Amino acid sequence: MAKKSKLSLTDSLKNELEALSTLVGVDKFTDVELSRAIKAMSDAYIGKIGVLTPWNVPGATAAYVTYFHTRNTLRCLAALLRLKESSFFDKIDLGVIHEVGSGTGAFSFALQEFMKSHKVLYKAYFCEEKEASVYDLHQKWSETSGFTIKKSEKNKINDTLIMSYSMNELLENKVSIDFSSYKNIIIVEPSDSKHSKQLIKMRKKLIQEGFFIWGPCTHQEACPFIDLSEKFWCHDRYEFDDLPEKYLKLCKRLGWEPARLGFSYLAASRVKPEIINNEVDIQQGINVRFVGDPLKEKGKIRQYVCMDSKLRTMSVLKRNKLLYKSWSNERGEMKTFKADQLDFLDTEIRLKST
Prior knowledge:
single chain, alpha/beta, Rossmann fold, CATH 2.40.50.120, 2 domains, nine-stranded mixed sheet, 10 helices
């Protein structure tokens, strides 16, 4: 199989992350103190639904900025790159953006970095954050970075809703959101089963309200993952390289993986995608999202895919040497195939040509 790709951080993104660390005074804390605070915060909400960020933990803001903010920025950047694969930003103007639970600004960091290489249409960026000191920190970074944010205004008409690692505020009724009032919605959450399945439930609600799903789903039908066990769920993964030195040191001290980051996401819009699998003639081509890692079996490689309401896998036979050796479909990646490239064997789709 082909080697997995990595995304290297640019110097500009590392500089922005360093600037935020300076604003919060990370250097006032030792690595031991930061590690202790990171562990306390992680224990408070990892894998749980409805638990808010414990900002009252000693050193919480410094720990959050150094560790969680870095990871969440990279995850949001990965989600934006996935949406680029489906031409989301080519077709959609985000207009007035409203981010709920904006925290220290992970999504805005990611969007700023993404916009250096890709065109994104939007008019203004408004943030809603209950913790005043955290919003103030985000605002100070905004003033130095050139990425303008504004405080959310009541009764303002917004076009795009952003929720980045803030679904817990919604589930705890800390915020009230009328999803139907938006034109576009982008949500990024942890990669664990509980949060992923919450997104699937939200997906169903959005479809009922007239939204089209742009990612990660390739169709508008029922999601086959919703009724599966907690050991099997839809999530993505991206691998990063050339990470900030302070972040790497803390990950090493904690014994945690620094570069291979999982996440779940959901993107919806009133704008209809060009290809929706269940609405097109298969001869025109189908979009396939790889939602599992490659499974080597006797005589073939198989990988779970998102295509419609059935739980399907795509495979290639070992005797097809060229395809077998070049198999490089990464979890979360989307590709478009023509019908004559595939053989449909019930829930297994066999790739026979490139």
